[in-house]
Amino acid sequence: MALLQIAEPGQSPQPHQRRLAVGIDLGTTNSLVAALRSGLSEPLADAQGQVILPSAVRYHADRVEVGESAKLAASADPLNTVLSVKRLMGRGLSDVKQLGEQLPYRFVGGESHMPFIETVQGPKSPVEVSADILKVLRQRAEATLGGELVGAVITVPAYFDDAQRQATKDAAKLAGLNVLRLLNEPTAAAMAYGLDQHAEGLVAIYDLGGGTFDISILRLTGGVFEVLATGGDSALGGDDFDHAIAGWIIESAGLSADLDPGAQRNLLQTACAAKEALTDSAAVEVVYGDWKAQLTREAFNALIEPMVARSLKACRRAVRDSGIELEDVHAVVMVGGSTRVPRVREAVAEAFGRQPLTEIDPDQVVAIGAAIQADTLAGNKRDGGELLLLDVIPLSLGLETMGGLMEKVIPRNTTIPVARAQDFTTYKDGQSAMAIHVLQGERELISDCRSLARFELRGIPAMVAGAAKIRVTFQVDADGLLSVSARELGSGVEASIQVKPSYGLTDGEIAKMLKDSFQHANDDKVARVLREQQVDAQRLIEAVQAALEADGERLLDADERMVIELQVQELTELMKGTDGYAIEQQTKRLSQVTDAFAARRMDLTVKAALSGRNLNEIEDI
Amino acid sequence: MGIPCHFALFELQPSFRLDLEQLGARYRELARGVHPDRFADASEREQRLALEQSARLNEAYQTLKSPPQRARYLLAMGGRELPLEVTVHDPEFLLQQMALREELEDLQDSADLAGVATFKRRLKTAQDELNESFAACWDDAAQREQAERLMRRMQFLDKLTYEVRQLEERLDD
């Protein structure tokens, strides 16, 4: 379909309707949806005028309650109310225990290693809980914008690993959203600021949310947002501040740390309220049951100091990784609700030697930036002046080698998309298989890294040790998601895997969830699918015709052109009927026969950027 | 159509001396054309093509940006394979390396941050000198052996830079 957009950005043969796309900030504490309306990116409000949707989901026997009312029920119905589910995304049961906090849920195992939460509606995976939040936002957007969404950009913490990203994408799919891109939260915030202020230069984004911390260093040049380095901690956020205050209450009041779920929720809410009050007051009276005491801002600062220090250490590392000095940073942007804490602002200002920027609401800035990107990705802006994001992977990717060591194949902070290969060999005579263990992390011992996937390359022909040459290729796409393939070069034996994280849902689980969620919507489904197929077909036909007109003459010979034209004709005929399957198949066929044409045009765009030099000069040296 | 060499992709003549700013500007210009974000609503095939092209562009940029990688690439362009790890016969340099490493260990033991800063400056000077020497001889067939030796030295120092960064991280704890 982009056949047309390659050659002539911005020029559509028939200007089509604006395509509806949104940016979604799926946060630990709060979630938001934003869209571009009359040139302005803004968050969308619900019927009551509320922009922020608390990321709280309460399961009733017959319905799901999401948002403020669910949050308020958290202490009364702790087992069926899920808060901060983002902290569980892409994690296994053992990780959850390591989060070092008491969670009030009853966990059960599933087909995969994912922790399922037992509710009155049965076991719910973190992915399903997130999907329930996303569904509410999707409905809000469709109601506000007045139409079906073409797609959404969902933001994730830059420091999310592959498993956490995959889980987020699965949740969006489950909510019926077409994911245009997973976008790193600090990068989204940079876009919101960059657009507003036409910023140039080096910018640091300090993003402290409810449950995650990110630091990204970007270079802004003429509409290009180039991430130089990113760092952080996917288990550090405002929730930890609450836990610190809760710990202080337990200790000061001489309570037992072993509280029942309802009391625990109560305690955390008390702690959170105290934290928020300390943003404007120097001291606050904390009341818990019949115990009360004063918490000063100074004492609070001392409680959170280790966490603030951890975040600053990550900042220094990101600056070092960028190959720049602290003083080179022109601006520091504050993102995330937890940057309202005065001590956090102060510490960041000290570390960077400048006052951080807080003009855009730190709770909204990520969604606002994501909406801008969503609009571009949906194809609404093709004037060549659009923004470009060049992001990086936050954690190194590698393989297990002999002795339980991790060999890095792609180091952290490498710009994506990226493809990189590494060669290995057999270590035994006649070895016919090789186990490939894919890891993510910075440590040398594999036990300190995250295990992403394991697969086997089988059928290696018998050779002496060291004679086989096995090339393992890692590819990371623009969402930051990894796929790995392995190939024995002599024989061509091949194996590949789209990395399905060890802690992700199994395909079976996803299929079942999708089936469940479609159960009710089955009647509309057929009609909707047909409509989608027709729209797809129409877009492809338009694109092909425009491409033929622009480049058919110079890139195709007469036979090639005839084949394409015949397939276009065939598809045009089918479009008049209602056979969705036939339309889909023919759309695929047309896409296939134009594949080589598309590739040639793509090469042309690269060369077009090279200011009209003779092609032969460029190709070979 | 052949796969263009890294330099040709950026419309540059193969050379060790590079204007990094110009390279960066060219890179951003090219990335605009092929980045997958421009094909988010395109067919799967086109998305795949954009992914491959972008990955190739990124690889080329990463290689040319780093002096040791650029040096290695230039030498390999002649068609001779250069194994990543070889036994290096460069006793003089190896001795110097060992001395530098010992120094680094001492800095770690004494947690001497000011010392690390000085060490980094010296390392940078040594790298600049190496780069100059390489630039002067890499395209002279008669000095091929010397060029390869210099390239290996550059790799060593690059690795040392990485170790310094790791040390800084440990000292930051």
UniProtKB/TrEMBL annotation, chain B:
Keyword terms: Chaperone
SMART domains referenced in this protein's UniProt entry, alphabetically: DnaJ
GO term, biological process aspect, one: [2Fe-2S] cluster assembly
A GO term, aspect molecular function: ATPase activator activity
Domain J: 5-77
Taxonomy, superkingdom: Bacteria
Entries under Pfam families matching the protein: DnaJ, HSCB_C
A GO cellular-component term linked to this record: iron-sulfur cluster transfer complex
Entry annotated with the keyword Chaperone: yes
InterPro entries xrefs: DnaJ_domain (IPR001623), HscB (IPR004640), HscB_oligo_C (IPR009073)
Subunit structure: Interacts with HscA and stimulates its ATPase activity.
Family listed: Belongs to the HscB family.
Listed NCBIfam families: hscB, PRK00294.1
Function description: Co-chaperone involved in the maturation of iron-sulfur cluster-containing proteins. Seems to help targeting proteins to be folded toward HscA.
UniProt protein name: Co-chaperone protein HscB homolog
Gene this chain is encoded by: hscB
